[in-house]
Amino acid sequence: MKNCILFTTKHGSAEKAALSLKEKLNTETDIINLKNVENPDISNYDTVILGASVYIGKIQKQMRKFIGDNLNELLNKNIALFIMAGQKEKAQETLYNAYPSKLSDHAFAKEYFGYEMILEKMNFLEKTATKAQGVTESKSEIMHDAIEKMANHINEL
């Protein structure tokens, strides 16, 4: 069994989560940032894990494009999905709505992995919006228990 973690990230949080997940998996796992590899070949993987940060309710366009271009093939794989998003109270709704419903319904594992707000990595508009929400310092709320939970689901396959 071979796994692939495909992710998109704006400031690195989804990459941190993807790397943490990879460390917990028992089988060979490749990790690919879709910002660096436009349309990777997933034909040799049994399980494909898709992870993305959510901004204004949407995953990044590279992930949306990859899913659109590969939906039929993805629906023939074991699929796991994760998101990084700031609104904890809406995490499950955001997770379900972030990916196309056909893919989300097909996934055997879906997890909210928390979020990070690293002010030093934000542009002026992002910092302004973040400060308007009352955030005045960087913080990391990555949910390592959720990463462990997903790894356990994948390792059980």
* CATH topology type: Rossmann fold
Main sheet characteristics: 6 strands, mixed
- Please estimate the helix content: 25-40%
The total tally of domains equals: 1
Give the CATH superfamily: Flavodoxin domain
CATH class: Alpha Beta
CATH architectural type: 3-Layer(aba) Sandwich
What is the residue-mean pLDDT, rounded to a whole number? 88
Order of helices and strands: EHEEEHEHHEEHEH
Q: What is the strand tally?
A: 8
Unreliably modeled segments: none
Helical element count? 6
Task: Choose one word for the global shape.
Answer: globular
Gyration radius over CA: 15 Å
Terminal CA distance: 9 Å
Q: Which class of secondary structure composition applies to the elements? A: alpha/beta
Q: Beta-strand level of the residues, as a percent range?
A: 25-35%
